[in-house]
Amino acid sequence: MGIENRESLKDENYKGEDMTIDTNLENGPLPNRGITDCICLLVFFLFVGFYGSTVMYGFKNGRPDKLLRPVNGDGSLCGVAGLEDYPYLFFLM
Fold it and tell me: DSSP 3-state assignment of 71?
């Protein structure tokens, strides 16, 4: 029986008398809490470091201008390698 099917919850004067709460949580959260996500934080930092090194490797050894420059119909990059006079891509209508 789900909580949405309880008839007592449909009463507008319902105060929750029949609901039970954990006695450990009556006065708020437990005082003896600790860090539980150290491993997740370590994995996150490893991922960020790996991602950063991959991006740096790509910029050093790749051709990022292929991502940033337009390409004409022949597959040549606009503005480089013989097309210095044509830095922008032009579409005929």
Answer: strand
- Cβ atoms of residues 47 and 55 within 8 Å: no
Q: Do residues 78 and 70 touch, judged by C-beta distance below 8 A?
A: yes
Low-confidence ranges of the chain (pLDDT < 70): 1-6, 8-9, 83-84, 86-93
Token readout for 92 is 């005929």
Beta-carbon contacts of residue 8 (< 8 Å; ≥ 6 apart): 14, 18
Domain ranges of the chain: 3-68
For 27-43, write each residue's pLDDT tens digit. 777 777 777 888 999 99
- Extended beta strands in 1-93, E state: none
DSSP-based three-state secondary structure for 73: coil
